Amino acid sequence: MKSAGPNATLVEDDLAGAIRELKAERAGEIEVAGPALARSLTELGLIDEYRIYLHPVVLGHGK
After folding, report:
1. pLDDT in tens, 16-57
2. Among 2, 12, 38, 53, which one has the highest count of C-beta atoms within 10 angstroms of its own C-beta?
3. Domain Bacterial bifunctional deaminase-reductase C-terminal spans what residues (predicted)?
4. What is the pTM for the complete model shown?
């Protein structure tokens, strides 16, 4: 990946440093999407609170 869209940052090397810097600069929530990133941040001890959102999907034919 060469670039990130608006309101996004591309981190290539120091994930822990980038997240610590982001947490120091901003108050409030930082949203994380994707299980690989969430796992990395968990292993680094950088997640303070988990909020899990579910999007239920109903499959099949209605009557």
Report:
1. 999 999 899 988 888 888 889 999 999 999 999 988 888 888
2. 38
3. 14-62
4. 0.67
Compute the distance between CA of residue 51 and CA of residue 31 in angstroms, rounded to an integer: 9
In a 10 Å sphere around its CB, with 0-12 CB exposed, 13-18 middle and 19+ buried, how is residue 25 labelled?
exposed
Question: What is the span of the domain harbouring residue 24?
Answer: 1-63
- How many residues make up the chain in this entry? 63
Q: Which two tokens stand for residue 47?
A: 């997640």
Hey, what amino acid is at 45?
G
